[in-house]
Amino acid sequence: MKKIVLSLHTTVDGFLAGPNGEMDWIKLDEELFDVVGSFTKEADTALYGRVTYEMMESYWPTAADKPNASKHDREHSSWYRKVKKVVLSKTMKDEQNGNTRVIGDNVATEIGRLKQSEGGSILMFGSATAAHSLMEHKLIDEYWLFVNPILLGKGIPVFSDIKEKVNLELIETISLKCGVIALHYRVAAR
Questions:
Q1: Which domain holds residue 35?
Q2: Beta-strand (E) ranges in the chain?
Q3: For site-directed labelling of 103, which of 50, 122, 143, 151 has its Cα 20 to 30 A away?
Q4: Angle, nearest 10°, between helix axes 30-40 and 71-82?
Q5: What is the pTM assigned to this prediction?
Q6: How many domains would you assign to the chain?
Q7: Angle at 33 between CA 27 and CA 36, to 5 degrees
Q8: Are 25 and 150 in contact (CB under 8 A)?
C-alpha cells in the first residue's frame, strides 16, 4: 500500500502562504534540497492541486536543460519527468501525455484507490486547497514540515478544517543552516 507524504513550508505562526498566496519568504538552499531529494527518491507519484501543478509544469520539465542548472534542478527535473502525476482539479481536463491523471470528483475514493496500488510513495508538495482536502479525509500518512524563521501574522493556514484530533509521531528533526527546521511526522495509528 502506498503512503501519501505531504511536504510543505510553513511559517512559525502556521501559514503556508501569505494572504494572496505569496511565498517569497521561503528559505531555500542546497542543504534543504538534499533533504527533499532524500524523500523524492522514494516517490513514484506526485500529487498536486491545479495551481501548483501548473507552476511545476512550467518549470521542471526543462529545468535540467538550462546551462546554469544547479544540482537540485538537474535531479528534481529528472525525477519530475519520470514520476506519475495526479492533479486534483474540477476545472482541468486530463493531460494528453499519459503521465498525468486529473481527479475532479470523488477525491477521497479515487485517492483511496491510488493508495491501494503498488509502488513507491505519493509525494505532495504544497497545494493548500488539495492538502486541506486530503487532511479532511485523513488521507495523509506523513508530513514534512519545513518551518521557516518568520512570522506573517496572516495568510493561508497550514491546517484548516480539521474536524478531529490527529496524533502524530515525530520521526526526525533536522536543523538546517539557513534557519529552517525540518520536522518529519508520521500519522499515529488510527
A1: 4-187
A2: 4-11, 15-17, 43-49, 84-88, 100-103, 121-125, 142-148, 156-157, 168-175, 181-187
A3: 143
A4: 20
A5: 0.91
A6: 1
A7: 110
A8: yes
